[in-house]
Amino acid sequence: MSAVTDVMKGKTPVSDTSSQEAQGAASQESLDRLVRLLKQAQQEIGRIVLGQDKVIEHMFIGMMSNGHVLLEGPPGVGKTLLVRCLGQVTGLQFSRVQFTPDLMPADISGSMVLTQEGQGEARLQFQPGPIFTQLLLADEINRATPRTQSALLEAMQERTVSVAGQTMDLPQPFLVLATQNPFEMEGTYTLPEAQIDRFLLHIDVHYPERSILSDVLDLTTGSQVNAAQACLTSQDILSAQALVRAVPIAEHVRDVIAHFAVATQPGSTHAHERARRFIRFGLSPRGAQALVIAAKAHALLHGKYNVGFEDVEAVLLPATRHRLQLNFEGRAQSISIDQLVGDIFAHCRKQAA
């Protein structure tokens, strides 16, 4: 826990023992407060969007990891509502872009426009697009063309936007939460591999169970309109992101993650047998990094100050399922990526035991 509390102190330790103890107590109190606020914010969204507790937790893990999140599910399961509620509880500046086939890159990033003030000469001025925000909802992202989707690449990776030879920083924190319909639906495009890899987590949003659906109908078809209350600030989120980086991970846990990543790469000498047979592209170093940082966020969110295997397994699928590609045989046999990922990780962990 010392690494985490050192981040909370934000200063060089002093020599006086009592002062150090006081700083440590204050840091622990601040840490407990932050974890409590994160839990409160989760519960606030859960009060509005019923039956999606695991999805909400994964959204917070993505936010705490300073990563972008892709929500996939059929229409009507509450994907857009989830993101709107996240904007409400965090108090972040919020923008929404509805992706359509005729959307252009400049509609997202902004463009240079000709302006004239009074009797002065006309001049070009940059008009910022909706991407200049803290929380961007990219709604139905796979209904736009790949050219338009690629407008997000620089922003998602570098947190900057380049227009007309100028590079501008985006507000901090900057998070993209995208929703998409399953690829099998009409009017959808497959996201380019380079873009989908920019998402830290890929979360499946399923239909609620029957008992939950009854409560949803009661909550949403009455005269009362419910809204989520703000629980966090942007500074709280930035503090959480710094704390996540400070959470320690044991060497043997990190080694298993590295072994797992290599085992998914079909060209590796250490590749798993099923990876050689069914996988076209395995987990990249960026994917392994995403798994580690998401596991750290999961540990912190649950009040733990070190990463265990249970934290890795809790985020294994959303952190990796979108980064692996099946080959022709894998697609022909309808191999489940989730099942394949779980089997390979279990094998790697068993070998390390």
Number of domains: 2
Main beta sheet:
5 strands, parallel
- CATH architecture name of the largest domain: 3-Layer(aba) Sandwich
CATH superfamily of the largest domain: P-loop containing nucleotide triphosphate hydrolases
Low-confidence stretches: none
Record the strand order, biggest sheet: 2-5-8-1-9
Please tally the helical runs, counting DSSP H or I stretches of 4 or more residues. 16
How many strand units? 11
Strand content: 5-15%
Q: Nearest-angstrom radius of gyration?
A: 22 Å
- The CATH topology of the largest domain turns out to be Rossmann fold
Please report the first level of CATH classification, the CATH class of the largest domain: Alpha Beta
Task: Report on this structure.
With 353 residues, the protein is α/β, with parallel strands linked by helices. The protein folds into 2 domains: 2-8 and 22-102 and 131-242, P-loop containing nucleotide triphosphate hydrolases (Rossmann fold, 3-Layer(aba) Sandwich); 247-352, Helicase, Ruva Protein, domain 3. The chain is 50% helix and 15% strand. It contains 16 helices and 11 strands. The strands form 4 sheets. It has a 5-stranded parallel β-sheet. Strands 3-4 form a two-stranded antiparallel ribbon. Strands 6-7 form a two-stranded antiparallel sheet. The model has no long low-confidence stretch (mean pLDDT 86).
Write a brief structural summary:
With 353 residues, the protein is an alpha/beta fold. It has 2 domains: 2-8 and 22-102 and 131-242, 3-Layer(aba) Sandwich (Rossmann fold), CATH 3.40.50.300; 247-352, Magnesium chelatase subunit I, C-Terminal domain (Helicase, Ruva Protein, domain 3, Orthogonal Bundle). It contains 16 helices and 11 strands.
